Structures are given as C-alpha cells and as structure tokens.
Amino acid sequence: MSGLDVTLGSRDGSSRRPSASAVLELLKPVTWFAPVWAFMCGVVSSGASLVAHWPMALAGMVLAGPAICAASQAANDWFDRHVDAINEPNRPIPSGRIPGRWGLWIAIIWTALSLLLAASLGPWVLYAALIGLALAWAYSAPPLRLKQAGWWGPISVAICYEGLAWFTGAAVMTDGFPDAHVVVLAGLYSFGAVGIMVFNDFKAVEGDRQMNILSVPVDLGVENAAWLACIIMAAPQVVVATLLVSWGLPLHAAAVGLSLAIQCGLMVRLLGDPRKFAPWFNATGTLLYVLGMLVSAFAVGAHIGAPR
Fold first, then answer.
1. Spatial CB neighbours of 47, under 8 Å, sequence gap ≥ 6
2. Is the preceding omega at residue 143 within 30 degrees of 0, hence cis?
3. Which residues are CB-neighbours of 128 under 8 A, at least 6 positions away?
4. What is the rounded distance in angstroms from the CA atom of residue 154 to the CA atom of residue 168?
5. SS3 of the chain: helix, strand, coil, percent, to 5
6. Which end of the chain is more exposed for a tag (fewer CB within 10 A), N or C?
7. Residues 110-140: tens digit of each pLDDT
8. Residue 168 contacts residue 60 (beta carbons within 8 Å)
9. β partners of residue 214
10. What are the tens digits of pLDDT across the range 49-71?
C-alpha cells in the first residue's frame, strides 16, 4: 500500500492509456466550483474593473479550477485509491479506467502546467499557487498525508479552496499584494470553510476507519464533529458582519447576518442526524455561506477595495 503501488491502477496489468472521459472524471469538474467562486470573490473585492482586466480574470479562473483544483483532485485520487476501493470502487483509478501509474503522472503534469500558468499571472499569484499546490500534495501524499492528521486535513483544503483562491483573484486584478481588507475577508471565510470540509468527510467515515485515516469525524465521532464544524462555520461570519458594520457597511452586514441566521436554522436539523443530513446541508447551508462571501466581496470592492 505504498504511494507507488500500482495494483489498483489497472486490473489487468496492461499499459493501455486512459480515455479522455476517464481523465476528465479524475479531474472532477464538479469540485472546481468552490475555488472558482472564491477566486471571483477575490476579483470582485479587489475593486478593479472586470471589463478592463477580463483576460486576466479568465486565466485566473482556469488556474483556480481546471488547473490547481484539478491537479489536487488527481493527486488525491492516486494516493487515496485504496480507500476509494472500499468507499467508491467505481472511481477511475480503483475501477481500472485509469490504469497503471497514469493517475500519478496526470497529477504531476497538471501540477507543472498549473505553475506555468500561475507564473504568467504575476509573482504573488505564483507564490499563492506554490503554497496551494504544496498543501494539496501534502494533504494526499506520504509522508505528511495531512488528511490522516485530524484537523490538518480540512484546514489545508480550506486554505487552498477558499483563502488562497480569494487572494489570487484580488492579486490577479491588482497585479500586486491585495488590500488588507481583502486579505482579512479571505482569511475569515477560509477559516469558516474548515467546517464545510469537516462535513465533506462524513461520507467516507467507514472507509477511513478501515484504513486508519484519522479524519475529524473518525477522531471525535460524527456528532461531536458536526457540532464543532457548525461553530467553526458560523463564528467567522459573525466577525465578518461586525467588521462590515465597523467599515460603514450596515446593509451588507445585515445581509450576511440574515444568511447566517438561516444557516443556523438549517444546522438545527443537521445536528439531529449529521450522517443523514450532511449532504443536504452541503447543498443548502453551504450555498448560503458562499452567497455571504459574495456579498462581502461586493461590499469591500465597492467601498473599501483598491480604486478602479
């Protein structure tokens, strides 16, 4: 079960090439939404004109989703293939549709292409990409394999998918280090996303237990993890609403507060049966969370961010 064991990569031991559809499935386009949304929040919060900078914004969206996020998904599926053989045996690598070491090579190539694209968008974008990709590989690959290290797993994913993506969006638009207000919002929403990442781990609890992966739900128990995830998700939104009021943006603060109030109502149902309602909450509470992100981004972009 070492990082380079290929027995699950091809059931017949052949060296055939994977199909384009299998590669696309490995790169998981459905997961690109979160970092692309956070990137666009960074774009909006920068205060820069999207019309004037749309080529950079478009390239940055590709970097956040189809490049960096896709590379992280490929790396995760390669190093997680033994767990997937238990939890989701029909995924591309354990099913044999991505044979041999193709999964590993795809992850490496996509990582290199991501860095090339990031370098073309400026030094701060490259620095953020280097940190994000390093965390992505550390999350999945030995010896660190942060996904086995309790809280370090969801923290690393939240930083990559939310904080760094938001930072990158602002850096692309301003061609420099983002405004301090932007960085604060990115950090707060990144912290709250840790709770969302804990909810995502609920679906793999059985396989994680069998493979001795110490995810937060495995370590604390599903009920305790759900309570703590709700608190982590809600607390930074309270801080965001408070900051928006202090920055002279009460209407935006009220919108964030209303979103949080509805989330809290949804959390009550979630906590009644976390395993059952986690997917439902990810489709409802998380949607409200990211809408609050966008409201906050517009607030900073219009009133506090960099001049247009």
1. 179, 300, 301, 302, 304, 305, 306, 307, 308
2. yes
3. 118, 164, 167, 168, 171
4. 20
5. 80, 0, 20
6. N
7. 999 999 999 999 999 999 999 999 999 999 9
8. yes
9. 149
10. 888 889 999 999 999 999 999 99
